[in-house]
């Protein structure tokens, strides 16, 4: 499994959002503590107000403690949560009024006139109790007053405030994440632009060695961007050398071979009476022809590897016209082996937008192979059809064919199937065809002929609309056409 490359954007986002999230958690914890304190203090003040209101109404009549309990004393504790209110007034452990079983602190635990608060349970409910000790004129012992309230309102207020705090934190985190994403996107914008520049130089068939524009590149990424520019400059220099070598080799290697073949032709004319010498000269001539073909194929492959074909000016070309031309140019070679050339066309108007030289090389190599490897006295058929947006060109011969296990290997450079009667070759023809078709977005497949014999080469081309006014050219020799209707 391929290792996933680290993302600079992800690293920045994590580097910013993780500390912010930790801070948000700390704020949430601190906020919950503050909310708990505020809720307790707010309700305790109300409880204290009710307690002191009752304590203010204490009096002694005939030696007995009396309480004129005002309605407002307990009314201030009424809430929408329907909390229950309990109270008790006692002297020396004896209840004067209120709930007799309400928990009370010991007198010694209370400081005079200082309210005391605590949490307790009463009648199965959690309650908050406030108590105060007060000396009343006319009685020696202090009077204890206690007021208790269930905690429903407190808990409800705490939950609401916590919910509001959580919602505020979620919204805040979402806003921070959005702003952080926008900031990171804008901050990494120059790097994204630099990536697009580099990607454009990696598109197949469009080798661009112009230096990258570094005006907007941040200084942190300037060093690798400059290194890429230096690399592009070196690659451009190496490519120029390769192109120059290809041009020089095309001229310097073919010129002496052409002269050699001319002299061999002259020598064959003078050796008509010497069969032995003529046979030797014929062998030399055969090897020279083979060398010339191999050099042509090597140069073609070199030009294909460095995209010289694809960078050639593109024009709208008729596949049918190019197939006719390719067959016409090889009519003499086919006649030498008594091979009949046939053309079957389903649709005349099939046009591709490409270099004319590229299409010539593709069709020429495949037809050459069909003639050279087809059975003597047999037939080579070129079929042209359309499949949606693609044009299909099938070249079929009736030779020995290629076994299924070898059909991918023959696309390797210099690979040849070992056969005792195979004609001389370099093993480059199909390699060239596949490279060129890949460059122009096509494909090639090998299979059996329709008669279950020979080899069928299927080439797929991307079609384009026909150029108005362009008609197939007239050829001096026309292959026999069989038009399927």
Radius of gyration: 49 Å
Q: Strand order across the biggest sheet?
A: 13-14-12-11-9-15
- The end-to-end distance, rounded to whole angstroms, is 52 Å
What's the CATH H-level superfamily name of the largest domain?
Histidine kinase-like ATPase, C-terminal domain
Reported CATH architecture of the largest domain: 2-Layer Sandwich
Please give the share of residues in helix.
40-55%
Helix and strand content put the structural class at alpha+beta
Main sheet summary? 6 strands, mixed
**Structural domain count:** 3
Number of strands: 15
Q: Could you tell me the mean pLDDT?
A: 79
| Residue share in β-strands | 15-25%
What's the level 1 CATH class of the largest domain?
Alpha Beta
Would you tell me which CATH topology of the largest domain applies? Heat Shock Protein 90
Write down the overall geometry. rod-shaped
Following the backbone from N to C, one meets helices and strands in this order, namely HEEHEEEEEHHHHEHHEEHEEHEEE
Number of helices: 10
Oligomer: single chain
How does this structure look, described?
- The protein has helices at 8-56, 71-75, 152-187, 189-200, 222-270, 275-305, 319-329, 331-336, 356-373, 429-439; strands at residues 58-61, 64-67, 85-91, 94-98, 116-122, 125-134, 143-150, 315-318, 340-345, 351-354, 379-387, 390-396, 443-447, 456-462, 480-482.
- It is an alpha+beta fold.
- The chain folds into three domains: 10-159, 2-Layer Sandwich (Beta-Lactamase), CATH 3.30.450; 220-301, Helix Hairpins (Orthogonal Bundle); 310-482, Heat Shock Protein 90 (2-Layer Sandwich), CATH 3.30.565.10.
- The strands form four sheets. Strands 13-14-12-11-9-15 form a six-stranded mixed β-sheet.
- β13 and β14 (456-462) form a beta hairpin.
């Amino acid at each position: 499994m391929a290792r996933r490359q680290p993302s600079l954007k992800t690293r920045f986002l994590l580097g910013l959002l993780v500390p912010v999230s930790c801070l948000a958690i700390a704020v949430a914890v601190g906020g919950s503590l503050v909310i708990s304190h505020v809720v307790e203090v707010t309700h305790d003040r109300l409880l204290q107000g009710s307690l002191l209101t009752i304590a203010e109404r204490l009096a002694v009549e005939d030696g007995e403690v009396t309480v004129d309990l005002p309605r407002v004393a307990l009314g201030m504790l009424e809430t929408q949560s329907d909390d229950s209110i309990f109270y008790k007034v006692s002297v020396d452990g004896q209840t004067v009024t209120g709930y007799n079983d309400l928990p009370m602190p010991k007198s010694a635990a209370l400081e005079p006139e200082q309210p005391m608060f605590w949490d307790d349970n009463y009648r199965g409910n959690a309650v908050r109790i406030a108590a105060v000790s007060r000396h009343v004129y006319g009685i020696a012992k202090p009077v204890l007053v206690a007021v208790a309230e269930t905690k429903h309102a407190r808990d409800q207020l705490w939950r609401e405030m916590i919910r509001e705090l959580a919602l505020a934190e979620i919204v805040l985190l979402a806003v921070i994440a959005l702003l952080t994403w926008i900031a990171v996107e804008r901050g990494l914008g120059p790097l994204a632009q630099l990536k697009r520049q580099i990607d454009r130089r990696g598109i197949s068939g469009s080798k661009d060695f112009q230096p990258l524009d570094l005006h907007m590149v941040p200084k942190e990424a300037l060093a690798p961007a400059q290194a890429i520019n230096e690399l592009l400059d070196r690659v451009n220099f190496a490519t120029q050398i390769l192109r120059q070598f290809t041009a020089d080799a095309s001229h310097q290697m073919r010129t002496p071979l052409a002269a050699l073949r001319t002299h061999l032709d002259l020598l064959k004319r003078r050796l008509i009476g010497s069969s032995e010498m003529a046979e030797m000269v014929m062998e030399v001539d055969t090897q020279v022809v083979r060398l010339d073909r191999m050099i042509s194929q090597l140069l073609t492959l070199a030009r294909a590897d460095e995209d010289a074909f694809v960078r050639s000016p593109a024009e709208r070309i008729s596949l049918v016209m190019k197939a006719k031309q390719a067959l016409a140019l090889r009519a003499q070679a086919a006649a030498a082996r008594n091979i009949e050339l046939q053309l079957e066309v389903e649709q005349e108007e099939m046009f591709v937008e490409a270099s004319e030289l590229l299409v010539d090389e593709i069709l020429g190599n495949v037809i050459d192979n069909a003639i050279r490897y087809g059975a003597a006295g047999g037939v080579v058929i070129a079929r042209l059809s359309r499949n949606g947006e693609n044009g299909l060109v099938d070249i079929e011969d009736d030779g020995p064919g290629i076994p299924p296990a070898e059909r991918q290997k023959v696309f390797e450079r210099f690979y040849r199937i070992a056969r005792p009667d195979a004609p001389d070759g370099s093993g480059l023809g199909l390699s060239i065809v596949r490279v060129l078709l890949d460059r122009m977005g096509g494909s090639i497949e090998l299979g059996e002929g329709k008669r279950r014999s020979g080899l069928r080469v299927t080439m797929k081309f991307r079609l384009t609309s026909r150029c108005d006014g362009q008609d197939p050219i007239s050829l001096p020799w026309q292959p026999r056409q069989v038009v399927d209707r």
